[in-house]
Amino acid sequence: MRASLKKLSWSAWLQLAGWTVFGTLGCVAFSLAVTFVLFQNAGAEVFDLVLIEATVVPILLAAPLFFYLTLKLRELAIVNHKLVVAASTDALTACLNRGAFSSRVNDVLAREIARRNQRTMGALLVIDADHFKTINDSFGHAEGDVALRVIVAAIQPCLRSDDMLGRLGGEEFAVFLPGASPVNAADIAERIRRSVAEAPFQPAGRLHRLTVSVGGAVFNSPVGFEELFRVADLHLYEAKGAGRNRVELAPMPPDLTPGWLAPSLLN
């Protein structure tokens, strides 16, 4: 408990104090109300004595109890938050893992459907590190892990505040760009490509240039994550086949209807 108290900030102390005072005053008020009902016909001396006890005893008992309970509830909330973060975060790169990324993207898209917004737009970029196996084979998996963190660090400054970055697995990442126009999406994708190519990476003290290929799908009508990913992934393979270290971005096919949407929602 002492260790927990030492870690408390001033705002946490104020919160603990506030709940302790509030809870204690509530207990005192309840105690006084019960005392008044039970002893209102007692003599003045008895009533005064009982009234003092009804005030002092709750303070002595409730104050430390409420302080302890509030402290433990705060610790529980912190632990729960850490568990939620750990469950949704990729341990190596600290960006969203695949499950959390796809879930959050689908949540955003579903909200647009719920608003019956037929003009929703945005883009999904799928990013793959070029020749990543060569890095692992030449410098070892530890340096490969460093390379992945360098790539993430290079991508993040290129994103807007509402954009999402996730690691899909291995050396593959994805970026969701809600509300992005085709021009915005192409600009961000190209900035990501350049940023990674300019990122410093020196395994074993030797300069090694990192590059990524980017495939993207731009949408302007209701769609789901799986449909977006399937199309963006196809464009990623086009970028790989065209020589790597490039961006291939295109609109979603107009005849592709998201399978997870009920037809009534699209009308």
Automatic annotation (TrEMBL):
Report the EC code(s) recorded for this entry.
Answer: 2.7.7.65
Which intervals hold domain GGDEF?
A: 120-252
**PROSITE patterns in the record:** GGDEF, PROKAR_LIPOPROTEIN
Which transformation does this protein catalyse, written as a reaction? 2 GTP = 3',3'-c-di-GMP + 2 diphosphate
Q: Which UniProt keywords are present, listed alphabetically?
A: Membrane, Transmembrane, Transmembrane helix
Q: What is this protein called?
A: diguanylate cyclase
| Organism encoding this protein | Aminobacter niigataensis
Gene3D superfamilies xrefs = 3.30.70.270
- Entry-linked PANTHER family: DIGUANYLATE CYCLASE DGCM-RELATED (PTHR45138:SF9), REGULATORY COMPONENTS OF SENSORY TRANSDUCTION SYSTEM (PTHR45138)
Give the matching Pfam families.
Answer: GGDEF
Q: Which residues cross the membrane?
A: 12-39, 51-71
Which SMART domains does this chain map to? GGDEF
Q: Where is the signal peptide?
A: none
The family database entries (InterPro entries) matched by this protein are listed as:
Diguanylate_Cyclase, GGDEF_dom, Nucleotide_cyclase, Rev_trsase/Diguanyl_cyclase
